[in-house]
Amino acid sequence: xxxxxxxxxxxxxxxxxxxxxxxxxxxxxxxxxxxxxxxxxxxxxxxxxxxxxxxxxxxxxxxxxxxxxxxxxxxxxxxxxxxxxxxxxxxxxxxxxxxxxxxxxxxxxxxxxxxxxxxxxxxxxxxxxxxxxxxxxxxxxxxxxxxxxxxxxxxxxxxxxxxxxxxxxxxxxxxxxxxxxxxxxxxxxxxxxxxxxxxxxxxxxxxxxxxxxxxxxxxxxxxxxxxxxxxxxxxxxxxxxxxxxxxxxxxxxxxxxxxxxxxxxxxxxxxxxxxxxxxxxxxxxxxx
Length: 288
What we know:
- The protein is α+β, with helices and mostly antiparallel strands.
- The chain folds into two domains: 3-93, no CATH class; 102-287, DNA integrity scanning protein, DisA, N-terminal domain (YojJ-like (1).
- Helices cover 57% and strands 14% of the residues.
- The protein has a seven-stranded mixed beta sheet with strand order 2-4-3-1-5-6-7, with helices on both faces.
- Helix 3 runs antiparallel to helix 4 (61-69), helix 7 runs antiparallel to helix 11 (238-248) and helix 11 packs antiparallel against helix 12 (255-265).
- The longest helix has 21 residues, at 12-32.
- The radius of gyration is 23 Å and the shape is elongated.
């Protein structure tokens, strides 16, 4: 029997429904992949499949009735469990702008990198958030609103001890410092290392709620870390930080492709370095 006969036997409407459900589940998988809700989703799905299979095989009508009755409460539980992911998805629907224009992104990276290296060499703690496509107005309102160019000396001076703005985070949007002394939301993830301090948890927390990239300088060791999409990369040097920021702060990249591209930039194996150099050459030729 040909595939046309199969479609006719199943019905065109049923085939369309199967196709739509397949696309929905595929994009749900891509969305939750790598998030803290991924393991919960997989475990919950397996549990439901096992329970439904058991009730069908052994004809457990009472248990089957309980499962159907709990379906409404299960929907509410999913909203609670996946609240951060759902909030991020709804926020991404309202995207209107991008990290920065292609012409200005290299200048922003250079300015921020200069300030971060200056702070790291002197072991001055810092928390710098670069806004992406999801706005951070609520975070900005917790600090002092500003509107100034990203100047390395000015940016670094905000974090020096005993200055009025040193105890919070800085928000950068469209190549300008828009707020300082901000309170970033702390990550509530229990699997994070106990060695992470408040500054690192705040950096991760902001990236869990938005698509910003956050640079953290440790006050104790002077090490540089980057938080992005709820993940933390620690102990970066100047060159790796430059490659990461150049890969993420890109107008052409979607969040998923930007993350993959950033991980590629941080791959220091011979194959990874060769791939990064090849990509850089291709981008240079395209620019010309």
